[in-house]
Structure prediction request, 254 residues.
Amino acid sequence: MTDNGATKPDLASTMQLVADVEGWMSPGQGATLYDAADRCPPDGTIVEIGSFRGRSTIVLATASDPSVAVIAIDPHAGNDRGPQEIDGFADEAADDHAAFNANLAAAGVADRVTHLRTFSDDALTEVDGSVDVLYIDGAHRYAPALADIRAWGDRVGDGGTMLIHDSFSSIGVTLAILRSLVFGSRFRYVGRSRSMTIYVADLDGGLGSRVGNALRQLAQLPWFAKNVALKVLLTLKLGKLLERTGRESPEWPY
Prediction:
């Protein structure tokens, strides 16, 4: 139930809301986002870095309590739009922004979301206080991914949740995780839904806990290697070769 007595849409209804919204989010990842937002405390704060056309934003806004502030950070500048779309898409930027607003309105959550149309580092001063749920799906290159994990991760309150998309899939994001989280002392690795990792800021910092935490993350590296090999295959257009032999071409891993 929400504050006004209305029944909050369940996961199945929420996923139906975003069925036609463009984006890279598997059903399992949608469930992970829904659960994190549902557990966000009343009057809490959810921050999303990288919204694209609003697929994940709608899930976060729908699942959270109406008192929760949902802040979506995306410059809609035509950069880091998706797989192999790092830059050079300025002409699509206005369309992305318009689609984002239209999709939120169609889902009935436009008034629940504060959109900061700026880059994530510039948005740090625009968000007050600590963050209860942080979802990082911004630039996937090493330097900006590392900056997001470090700067915005520092804003996550004790016991808060941090979700990172394209973990152990994107090379840049994975290197940033190896640098900042694998041997870190604050964020406990809970698991992942495909490439969406789940961390909670409750690691006790002891040597045993840190070693176990590191080993659980390092155990994902074979899956990472498989994803990199698959991306090379798709980049070289070898997926079409599989189709010619009657096999289905794999999708871009996310």
User: Anything to note?
Assistant: The beta strands are 45-49, 69-73, 113-116, 131-136, 156-164, 188-193, 196-200. The CA atoms of residues 129 and 155 lie 8 Å apart.
